[in-house]
Amino acid sequence: MDRFLNLGKRRVSSSSADKPDCECSSSTDSEKDLEPNRQSNKKKSKISHVWKYFKRSDDKKYAKCLDCGKEYKTSGNTSNLHDHLKRFHPGVERKSAESSTQVVRAERNVTTSTSSSCRSSMNSVASYFKRAVMYDSNSKRKTDIDKALTEMVAKDVQPYNIVENEGFVQYTHVLDPRYKLPSKTHLRDVLMHNYFTETSAKLSAILVNVSNIAVTCDLWTSSANASF
User: Fold this and answer.
1) DSSP states along 49-101
2) pLDDT tier at 69 (50, 70, 90 boundaries)?
3) For residues 45 and 36, is the Cβ–Cβ distance under 8 A?
4) What is the per-residue pLDDT for 101?
5) How far is Cα 145 from Cα 176, in angstroms, rounded to an integer?
6) What is the rounded CA–CA span in Å between residue 207 and residue 201?
7) Residue 72 near residue 80 (C-beta atoms within 8 A)
8) Average pLDDT, the chain
């Protein structure tokens, strides 16, 4: 009987020794699998900018403002700290918001720099050719400007060579880069002659219905005895 009991004890001890420790190995493997996820979560978590202006207590239950010294109780969020900055230190909160906005704008500018540079170059080329193309001599726009120029010279008694003055040329170019000033000869012999003919025709049409006309002459003599 003792012999059979000893054989049973040996079999039980051998089976228990050969059995692998599954629970320990499985728990270790699962912890190893979770370590990368924990590290990634740590990387993803961001520290709020308010901690630049507050200091946590040793027990991490309170936060003290580095500027005014006020303490606030924290429970895992920073809402009351943000509220403190807005009420008592608005300049600090505004700078933080502006800095974050500038970062977002900078990222957008980097992504669109190539397209914007190409677009700006295309616009500059298009504007260059647009400025280079002058008005046609028979276009309505050039005819209207020539007429306005002729009327100005006649009403203000300006010399014909005003179209050659550097300042007047630059002024006209700024107003309309596509308009080219006429020469003083063209202004005198063509534009002014046409304006005189047009004005004389209008005056003749007015005088047709006039029965009486009074003409007055102003005669005077200069200090050099020249009569006018």
Assistant:
1) GGGGTEEE-TTSSEEEETTT--EEE-SS--HHHHHHHHHH-HHHHHHHHHHHH
2) confident
3) no
4) 57
5) 10
6) 10
7) yes
8) 76
Q: Which residues of 30-64 are buried (b: 16+ CB within 10 A; e: fewer)?
A: eeeeeeeeeeeeeeeeeeebbeebbeeeeeeeebe
Q: How far is the CA of 121 from the CAs of 108, 116, 131, in angstroms? A: 19, 8, 15
Q: Is residue 57 part of a domain?
A: yes
Q: What is the pLDDT of residue 156?
A: 95
State whether 123 and 157 are in the same domain.
no
What pTM was estimated for this model as a whole? 0.40
Start-to-end C-alpha separation, the chain? 166
Overall number of domains in the chain:
2
> Rounded to 5 degrees, what are φ and ψ at 64?
-110, 130
Which of these ranges, 40-54, 107-121, 123-137, has the smallest mean pLDDT? 107-121
Question: What distance in Å separates the CA atoms of residue 75 and residue 86, rounded to the nearest whole number?
Answer: 19
Q: Flag whether 75 is in a domain.
A: yes
Could you tell me the residue range of the domain that residue 201 belongs to? 140-207
Place of tokens 């977002």: 104
